[in-house]
Amino acid sequence: MKTFHLRVISSDKIFYDGQCENLILPIEDGQFSVLAHHENMVVAVEIGELHLKTPEGEWITAAVSQGFAEIINNRVSVLVNAAERPEEIDVKRAEEAKQRAEERLRHKQSLQEYYLSQASLARAMARLKTSKHKHWNI
What we know:
Pfam families: ATP-synt_DE, ATP-synt_DE_N. By secondary structure, the protein is an alpha+beta fold. It has helices spanning 91-106, 111-131, and strands at 4-9, 14-20, 22-27, 30-35, 41-45, 48-53, 59-64, 67-72, 75-80, 83-84. Helix 1 (91-106) runs antiparallel to helix 2.
């Protein structure tokens, strides 16, 4: 299968840098797939799960936060605030963050606080979902 160069960068590390056959990104209204020779564009990445398939056929999954992906000339750069493999996720900490966010959402708060609480809840839920499966197959 044809490949493209992929670089996934989070605020604290380079998560992945190499060839890729297929990239699936979380976007506002679902998932967005990128294959080799995709049309040039920029896409907003939302909180959720990123999946990438290496040339060896291995799927790598990551919980990602918001960011964007730039597709230019068969090269894809994904910049996100955070990217974590399932084995890197502290499940207990994610559960606690989920509970705190749910509690904050139950209280009356400003619109800005509401959106921050909503984002915290989405991040915690994405991390918990990603931590439950180590392998992803199509």
